Amino acid sequence: MNTIWDVAKKAGVAISTVSKVLNNYPYVSEETKRKVREAIHELNYIPNTIAASLSSKQTARTALLLNLNAGTQVIDEITLQYIHGALNAAMEVNMEIITIFLSMIKHMTPEEITRYLQSQGITGIIICGMTKEDRYLRELVETGSFKSVLVDVPLINDNTSTVWVDNAEAQYEVAKKTITENKCESVLYLEGKDNGYVTDERLKGMKRLAEELNLKMLVRNGDFSELKARELTFKYAKRKDAVVAASDLMAIGAMNALIEMDIFRPVCGFDGITLMGYVGKQMNTVRQDFYNIASTAVWELKRLFEGGKGQNVYTKYELVKLYYKDVIV
Amino acid sequence: MNTIWDVAKKAGVAISTVSKVLNNYPYVSEETKRKVREAIHELNYIPNTIAASLSSKQTARTALLLNLNAGTQVIDEITLQYIHGALNAAMEVNMEIITIFLSMIKHMTPEEITRYLQSQGITGIIICGMTKEDRYLRELVETGSFKSVLVDVPLINDNTSTVWVDNAEAQYEVAKKTITENKCESVLYLEGKDNGYVTDERLKGMKRLAEELNLKMLVRNGDFSELKARELTFKYAKRKDAVVAASDLMAIGAMNALIEMDIFRPVCGFDGITLMGYVGKQMNTVRQDFYNIASTAVWELKRLFEGGKGQNVYTKYELVKLYYKDVIV
DNA sequence: CTGTTAGCGCGTTCAG
DNA sequence: CTGAACGCGCTAACAG
């Protein structure tokens, strides 16, 4: 491996000069820049990121914290999209990402986590799938030891940004479409886990719709669980005209229950996961681009690293129905 | 953050002594060890891994290389299991893992990849989902610049190990079960991509079975694709008694085709993915524990780091049918 | 605009 | 058995 030393020698300059052109510092003549770049190119030199972070103390090493609670297919798909999006964006902006599952650090106190991360030279974190129960994470973020970007969690301060879709609006839209298409007058709403930050938002959107359309609405907590949604559907769907679920998995559970009960009710979901193409015939859902969300989070973190203040970033969504032909490859 | 200096001061020794007890070097008196450990504990000291790797040049920083070609649910599940298993095991053995998708490095030459990884201080790699087409990866491994563990690829040398299940045997068993249960005399075998290392093995197992049971076997290349399997089934299944697919996804494609054709043929798959519970009623499959495979790979890599020679490590599998009740949560 | 120098935190000889 | 001293590869003042 060539070091910065070799480059300096080859270009006939001091290592600090090389470092400067490497990091785009001002006050370097075009001529020297050229010489240095040439030497770098000829030697196929790649800076040692380890040494760089040791010395600079401010490199963009980032931890991607992921929740992997329920071992369902859905979680898999979403989580992997997060990882993929984050890693690719990280490569673009030249940032190192360490993937960490919350289960691996759940037993630690915020202080322990902080030390653990800092010992790895991590200065920024991106959190996906955080719940209200993850108080230690919240503390971690609030101490401000790291630049943070949270996905789907409304927590913003100088060095914390949030990336999420407008859940209230999305829930409103998808439900409205489903309900008006079928001229329903009453609805069973299967809301998510109380510990989920998006749960309240989605419920809010749903309430607005119920009021607007003058719907009779029954709200029940499905915990984002397919099984629970199934049970609730068995129990309540008969007396309602439609089932709106706050997640695709719950929508699938509801639909399967309806099939077993042998009655038809329109169902809609939220997420837009592939599984819908296999089982959810004709179900409206809100499709989120999780790859893009993670990617956005990385760019937002980069902004924070560069001195930007925390902010709220909305990402897009679309209303879709997934068909088998869309997912078969 | 406390440094090794603070610990040394508190324990009343030199930093080198602290370093020695940290790395379990001999020739340190029990008494000093005790003092140092106490200081470490009181200060909640965690060694800075960055500085450590800079200085030692032999830390176990590892790259987990993953293939993410087809954007299917199946790939998602398997890949995520790999990641999860690897990261958890890595934490146990105190090893740092950087996750990298092959798509991110596919445009680089082996030399470029080598430099890229080395610039990150990486000395070991684990590769999942490598195909025969990934020649640059093979070169990378064969240069011996890294300690490597390959999953499902038969390539072994002093610093390269392989982790995989006995694909031939597994394919033999699952097919045998399916075929004898249904007293079949002819079979359509949907093999995987030619570029897959497991494809030949599975075919080998299948051939042995065909010979043993004196089956009429038609082999067609399904490319691990659901769509292709579907088409092949439409074309050939009618004249056969059973369909054996070299992957779950193909099995699902075959089954859907059979349903549309409105004929019954026993089908079996390979992998044991969750999706089978949703769509694959009563299908035999070979269930692999991808979490465990990745975990095993990490431990194997650790062995290589410690001077062990490359070897072949077999992991287990089981024959199962997945039902909806097994996957609903 | 360029070069010198002092660390970053730790591992590792090598005297003592 | 212990500690002083050097260096890993690089960044960041600080002189010049």
Compact summary:
The structure is a homodimer of 329-residue chains. With 329 residues, chain A is α/β, with parallel strands linked by helices.
Structure report:
The structure is a homodimer of 329-residue chains. With 329 residues, chain A is of the alpha/beta class. The first copy, chain A, folds into 2 domains: 4-165 and 289-316, Rossmann fold (3-Layer(aba) Sandwich); 167-287, Rossmann fold (3-Layer(aba) Sandwich), CATH 3.40.50.2300. In chain A, 48% of the residues lie in helices and 17% in strands. The first copy, chain A, has 14 helices and 12 strands. Chain A has a 6-stranded parallel β-sheet, covered by helices on one side. The first copy, chain A, is elongated, with a radius of gyration of 25 Å. The mean pLDDT of chain A is 93. At the A-B interface, α4, α5, β2, α6 and α10 of A face α4, α5, β2, α6 and α10 of B. The structure holds a DNA duplex (16 and 16 nucleotides).
